[in-house]
Amino acid sequence: MSEFKISKRLCTAASYVRDGAVVADIGTDHAYLPIYLALNGKIKSAYASDINVGPIMRAKENIEKYGLGNLITTEVVGGLDNIEKIAPSDIVICGMGGELIVKILESSPYIRQKGIRLILQPMTHIKEVREYLSNGFFTIAENIVYEDEKLYQVLCLQYDGELHPLTDIEKELGKMNIENKTDEFMLLLNSTIVKKQKRLEGLSLGGYDTRKIEEEIKELEKLK
Ligand SMILES: C[S@@+](CC[C@H](N)C(=O)[O-])C[C@H]1O[C@@H](n2cnc3c(N)ncnc32)[C@H](O)[C@@H]1O
Predict the structure, then answer these.
(1) Residue 115 φ then ψ, to 5°
(2) What is the distance, to the nearest Å, from the Cα of residue 10 to the centroid of all Cα atoms in its chain?
(3) Which strands make up the sheet holding 72-76, listed edge to edge?
(4) Which of 31, 84, 124, 209 stands 20 to 30 A from 76 (CA)?
């Protein structure tokens, strides 16, 4: 195990990358994730891309510092544009908003091939991400990470072309997370209930119909 340390959030994402993978880290910024994977001998090669020049300069510096230029290539490019030429088996997108992640995935036919693995850590709009993925991708693993007083959901899915319908609660919290009921899940559940209760108060004060949100809170309380 290398001494190179990364955040718990990125470490969880890295744990879902398959041994011997050709991995693409989209929106890599500092390239910590591919560097960590390469130093631990986990991958065949990596591609670290970012839409901005600054992050790729940072990534290049870090890659050189660890002498990994032969294993990790970099490129300034948006999303999954021209990803076919890299032909990654595992695609990581961490630390971006969920709506942007969906936009990036939607615009790439490459990801819809059997065996392609997606490892995603949306910062927002997790429901929209799971909704999009429920058409064509099955969940291999998912987890919730608590770090720096924040909760992060990390998803690992693979393409099979089938429909995998989810309830609204499953889209928000994750079917596997609900089954696994980790301590982090309980934290996420409680904070979700608190947020919805606040919304309920607001709706109620404004004289709006609160039946839907009351029902959602009731369903969430059952998961405790
Ligand atoms: C908050 S950083 C996340 C860095 C790293 N993936 C992580 O999770 O620690 C988001 C990065 O995504 C990049 N980015 C934003 N939109 C992008 C897009 N459409 N395609 C590729 N990279 C993008 C930004 O330049 C930034 O470096």
Answers:
(1) 95, -15
(2) 10
(3) 72-76, 43-50, 21-26, 90-96, 117-122, 150-163, 135-147
(4) 124
CA of 101 to the centre of ligand 1 (A): 10
Reported as a single tens digit per residue, the pLDDT across 100-157 is: 999 999 999 999 999 999 999 999 999 999 999 999 999 999 999 999 999 999 999 9
pTM listed for this prediction: 0.97
> From residue 114, how far is each of 86, 109, 120, 138, 222 by CA, in Å?
17, 12, 18, 11, 36
CATH value of 8-170 in 3.40.50.2300, 3.90.1150.10, 3.40.50.150, 3.40.1390.10: 3.40.50.150
205 CA to centre of ligand 1 in angstroms:
39
Which residues are 152's β-sheet partners? 145
Q: Are the C-beta atoms of residues 9 and 15 closer than 8 Å to each other?
A: no
CB 78 less than 6 A from any atom of ligand 1: yes
User: 97 in ligand 1 pocket by Cβ < 6 Å?
Assistant: no
Residue 70 CA to ligand 1 center (angstroms) comes to 23
